[in-house]
Amino acid sequence: MSSLRCQLSVSLDGFAAGPNQSLENPIGEGGMRLHQWAFATDRWRAQQGLEGGERSADSEVIDEVFAGVGAYIMGRKMFGGGDGPWDESWRGWWGENPPFHTPVFVLSHHPREPMSMEGGTTFTFVTDGIQSALEQARAAAGEQDVVIAGGATALQQYLAAGLLDELYLHIVPVLLGSGERLLDNVGDPHPRAGHGRRLGGGVTHIRVPRRSPAVNVKLGREHRHH
After folding, report:
1. Is this model's pTM higher than 0.70 or not?
2. d(CA 191, CA 181)
3. Which string of DSSP letters, residue by residue, matches 97-141?
4. pLDDT value of residue 84
């Protein structure tokens, strides 16, 4: 069975988005600072169909998170378009060629017909819960992994249900003060400590698998075992 994993950036004070999120400011005030490390890499820019960017250790992290993905799951807020019944004119934040290039399953309380986009992305809107979305995503992914693309609420639901196999956190040295906390409402999922890398720009990347026999913290190119 394919693994279910998630990778998200988080501030030092635990927020995945800043305050006052809106259609005009979907990540909230200051939220873009959480993702600048990724925007600077050549790998992220290539995934978006852009040129340029730096080839760095952070690029290697982006390589890892894009590798082996057969399907995505995301929450309604991540897809956007506001609350309530769908505005059919809303087709996501990404234009007609979204960067996923795989099936994407969107958690929603309101039905909508699937949308086929350029580049191989198909959005399917799932109204019967997180387990149904996971089953459909795994069927679409085959032997590849399913990734929760965001946002925090979608991750919280899968983490609280004990369904997440791996959480890859990118801890960014900024303080947002308020906003959407990443790890609220998850109960006690009993995660096992994993390993991380502290790379250029001060971002610490920590992979936390659901089961791991030991802690392995990687700072730069050096390994330290505790």
Report:
1. yes
2. 18
3. S-S--SEEEEE-SS----EE-GGG-EEEEE-S-HHHHHHHHHHHH
4. 94
